[in-house]
Amino acid sequence: MSRLTPDLVVDILALCQAAASEIAAALGRGLDTSLQVSVTRAGTLDLTSLPEGFDGPGLVVVLKVGAEGALFLLPESCGFLPPWYAQPDPTGQSKLTTLAQELGMLVIPESLPVEDFRAGRVGNLREAILRSGLAEGAPSVLLAISGAKTAQGTAVLSWPASRPDQALTESKPSAPQVSAQPSTSSFSPLSIGSQKSLSPSSPTVSLRDLPPYSKSLLRIKIPVAVTLARKKHPLGKILDLGAGSIIHFDKSCEEPLELEAAGYPIALGEAVKVGEKFGLRILRICLPEERILPVKPRPR
User: Fold this and answer.
1) Which of 114, 169, 228, 230 would bridge with 104, disulfide CB 3.0–4.6 Å?
2) What is the CA radius of gyration of the chain?
3) What is the pTM of this model?
């Protein structure tokens, strides 16, 4: 099984250099700004001389490969992070998750599938590094990031983290218990598409809070496909198809593409380029089809 090992530094450095403009575009979309990225150098992690701002809050992107992970860290002091990223609503959390997914496709070799990706704010980047299990001397790639104005900052990509799930887990001071109100989460992956039924006081459920038997269902792999268009064609014309043939569809090229899971439509999106790969940016989640059955009187 392939792993995130220190000897991948040459490959990951080359990926970051080749995809610098795509990394900047992904950060810009995720953080609602315009950025430029240049890869300065590769080196080793030195906890005693971290870049400016790493003793304070910032954004942590966790890219998990197997039991290990890579961390992409950007300090809040750089001035690029929007105010909403500290407590994102469902839309903001979706942007951060998409950012993490795109970075995973851009900076991790294709031979190492990123099985989990997430992003969020931490109160201290240095403490997040220690929690994640990144060791002193771990390989790192430094990226210089500049904005449309004069703001500048340095992001660090480092690996392998032996405890990547703990990077975003911060210990919170205990508060006096006033009432036995259920705790709420700022974002629930299960609430997508059903936000109309939620109220500010309604508790939400996170995937991490599911019982083990339910989590096991989430590991089942199903085919996911993007449908460009559909059309019925006479069998005779299909048999006449050959190299160079063109099939005309009634669908406009500006209409969204349909994402299907196991043959069922689940979302609409638009085609994007992620490095040298094809991607789909989700624009809307499809609600389950509502079916109304007539109620017939019971025969007497």
Assistant:
1) 114
2) 23
3) 0.66
